[in-house]
Amino acid sequence: MQCYTFDVIGCITYGERYGFLDEGQDIQGAIQAVGSIGRFSTLMGIYSEWYPLAFKLNGYLNDSGAGGRTFVAKFAREKIEKHKQEQQEEHLEKGGDVKILDRDGISREPFMTKMIKSHRQDPEKVTDYHLFMVAQSNVIAGFDTTAISLTAMMYHLLKTPRVLQKLRDELNAARASGKLTGKDRINFHESQDLPYFKVVVKEALRVHSAAGLPFWRVVPEGGVDIEGIHFPEGTVLGVSSWVAHYNEDVFTDPTEFRPERWIDQDETNLKAMNELYMPFGLGSRTCIGRHISTLEMSKLIPVLVDKFDFEIVSSPAKEGDWETENFWFVKPHNLKVRVYERR
């Protein structure tokens, strides 16, 4: 899943895949490096007084957070310079900007193309620093979170055969009725016309949100009263999506993976559930990349469950379970699955 999401972010940002799917492995340790950033940042946020020393020491270790941050930063700078050069050559030769043709022959502008074009037009407004932060932030924020969500979705589908079969039945019915036009891939808009698939995604993000920290907010001037308690201005408040999503007063049997809960509720209960649903956060600070994440999940999961069978092989915990750790993101580990092509 990480290879897929890393390559997708590469396509969106630079118009080219990194090659993780082609190689089937962690190229140059990039996946490990980005993962180490989360661990390092979390620990340093808690033990901030140790940050200067820890950064200096860990910078010499390949698997450390600081070393990972250095690696990702170097990788981003190399890509920026490469695209700057390509943009300059294309602009001089053809008087235009670099565009990428997708598999349908439609011209697309990668994220970095748009940024460099803005940089050329106004280098003081869109600086080299902005280019660097966009390149680095897209990778750090965009690949691991979606990979976690994809893994969680497949895990719960495999642990709940009834749901997996119901999803396959929906895909078969949609194909038979002509709603799915592609043989080996699915159009995003077509996936949004699959009502059961949409609630499978929603339920998977409820039971396993990628973000495992409270979504912090600062109380504004004048303070605020919440549930009869007054919080003065400047107070930092936060609610974890894991706490909200497992609220037994709103979600019946919250530990159960049951997509139908989003269908069989009355209007009042459904409204209460949606008000607490926050896998991407809520309000003005909600995740700006949520649509990209939804796109990736909607393109991949239907194809996987349609074309392949899966079997959970082993796990370090009791059979069929998995392990997770929370360093900012709630990341699953050591989940091994055997894959078979469906006949």
UniProtKB/TrEMBL annotation:
Heme binds at residue 287. Its cofactor is heme. One of its GO terms (molecular function) is methyltransferase activity. Keywords: Heme, Iron, Metal-binding, Methyltransferase, Monooxygenase, Oxidoreductase, Transferase. InterPro entries: Cyt_P450, Cyt_P450_CS, Cyt_P450_E_grp-I, Cyt_P450_sf, Cytochrome_P450_monoxygenase. SUPFAM superfamilies: Cytochrome P450 (SSF48264). GO terms for biological process: methylation. PANTHER family: CYTOCHROME P450, P450, PUTATIVE (EUROFUNG)-RELATED. Belongs to the cytochrome P450 family. This is Pisatin demethylase. It comes from Talaromyces marneffei PM1.
